């Protein structure tokens, strides 16, 4: 699979700000896309379904001027958590501004050791994936308010 | 000045979770304290008014078991921004879990170079200080929702 952007309603204006969603589970990508369409319309989600796709996209941002995302959502189990942590460290070692983009890790695990290791590996914040769709909506509303309305993002806003 | 905890209403139950507020401007400390009393009652703010006080407090957390804060608010101009960046890097180099606590930087500056350098120095998110008290309340409500209700914090929750 290549990099897929959200299918948009042609009546909606193009949203130039992007977030990169690194998620190997297509059902969760659909949830995230729907949650963003409802609660976080300020940005267009771009999907990478593997580590390799994500790194290719981020390297293209550095080299051929593809629009750099303002925020990254990273699934920890990609499909296993070692792959997620490895990708996290690879992104952190990329040149500025990619290397210090905020990375919000989404994970099914609420284990203390997973949370600790993720912060130790350079994640910006660790979020346990909600179970109900209503809670996905709430989470994405909070992401939008925090990152789009309160925080100043690196280099772009 | 030593480390000062918020004066609490004795009718309120003790809130065990702490946030460390590193802020040299007493007026801004009062604003932050009031905003937390209104919008972020889940945690008790602890004030450090200099880099030395902040480092002493964080080292005491590591060595003599003072309760580790879950989040740090750091004023960039402490009183100058070089001091703020230096302290940020000093905190990031402390042992776990102190070294990877989320650090929300509060700054009067909205200059791109200050935002960029702050992320490059390891800040978790950069927030331009609001001017109106109403906007401080909104910001602290967003901090509470994001860090207390959505994110899982390192090692403590």
From TrEMBL, chains A, B:
Keyword Phosphoprotein: yes or no?
yes
Which residues does the record list as 4-aspartylphosphate (modified residue)? Answer: 75
Task: Mention one GO biological process in which this protein takes part, according to its record.
Answer: phosphorelay signal transduction system
Alphabetically ordered keywords of this record = Phosphoprotein
User: Which segments constitute the Response regulatory domain?
Assistant: 18-144
Is tRNA processing set as a keyword in this record?
Answer: no
Enumerate the InterPro entries for this protein: CheY-like_superfamily, Sig_transdc_resp-reg_receiver, TCS_response_regulator
Domain of life where this protein originates: Bacteria
Q: Which PROSITE patterns is this protein grouped with?
A: RESPONSE_REGULATORY
UniProt xrefs under Pfam families: Response_reg (PF00072)
Which named protein is this?
Response regulator
Q: What is the protein's species of origin? A: Larkinella knui
């Amino acid at each position: 699979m290549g990099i897929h952007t959200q299918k948009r309603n042609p009546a909606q204006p193009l949203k130039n700000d992007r977030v990169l969603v690194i998620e190997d589970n297509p059902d969760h990508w659909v949830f995230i896309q729907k949650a963003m369409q409802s609660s976080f319309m300020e940005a267009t989600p771009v999907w990478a379904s593997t580590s390799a796709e994500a790194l290719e996209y981020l390297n293209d941002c550095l080299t051929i001027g593809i629009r750099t995302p303002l925020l990254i959502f990273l699934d920890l189990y990609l499909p296993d958590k070692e792959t997620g942590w490895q990708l996290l460290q690879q992104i952190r070692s990329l040149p500025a501004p990619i290397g210090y983009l905020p990375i919000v890790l989404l994970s099914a695990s609420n284990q203390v050791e997973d949370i600790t290791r993720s912060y130790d590996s350079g994640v910006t914040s660790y979020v346990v994936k909600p179970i109900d769709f209503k809670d996905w909506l709430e989470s994405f509303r909070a992401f939008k308010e925090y990152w789009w309305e309160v925080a100043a993002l690196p280099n772009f806003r």
